[in-house]
Amino acid sequence: MDARLLNDLKRLLGSEGVLHKPEDLLLYEYDGSVEVARPDCVVFPTSTAEVVETVRLAMRHHVPLVGRGAGTGLSGGALAREGGIITSFARMNRIVEIDLENQRARVQPGVVNLDLSLAVRHAGLHFAPDPSSQKACTIGGNVSENSGGPHTLAYGVTTNHVLALEIVLPSGEIVHLGSAAIDPPGYDLTGVFVGSEGTFGLVTEITVRLIRLPEVVKTLLAVYDLVDDATQTVAEITARGITPAACEMMDGWTIRAVEEYVHAGFPLDAAAVLLIEVDGLSEVVEAEAEAVSEVCQMHHARSVRLARDDAERDLLWKGRKNAFGAAGRVSPSYYTQDGVIPRTKLPATLRQIAEISRKYNLAIGNVFHAGDGNLHPIILFDERNKQQFRDAVSAADEIIAFCIAAGGSITGEHGVGMEKDRLMPLLFSEADLDLMKRVRAVFNPTGLLNPGKIFPTTKGCGEIYVRPQPAQAVPSP
Amino acid sequence: MSMTAATLSESLGAIVGPGQTLSNPDHLHGYRVSGKTPKAVIRPGSDQEVAEVVRFAATKRLTLLPAGARTKRAMNVPTTAFDVAIDMTRFDRVVAYDPDDLTLSVEAGVSLSRLEAVLAEHRQFLPLAVPFMSRATVGGTIASGVDSPLRQFYGTARDYVLGMEFVTGDGRVVKSGGRVVKNVSGYDLHKLMIGSFGSLGVITKVNFRTFPTAASIGAFIAFFESARDAAGMRHRIAQSPLRPLTLEVLSPQATELLFRDRARGVELGPRLIDTPSKAAWALLVSFAGSGRVLERYERDLRALAGRDASALLDENATSAVLARLREFSPIALESSPGAVILRLSVLPSAIAHALDDVTLVAAKRELPWAAMARGVGVIYVALLPAAEDGEARSRVGGVIDDLFAAFRSCEGSITVAWCVDESNEAISPRKTTRNDLEQMRKIKHAFDPASVFAPDPLGAWV
Question: Is the entire prediction scored with pTM above 0.90?
Answer without folding.
Answer: yes
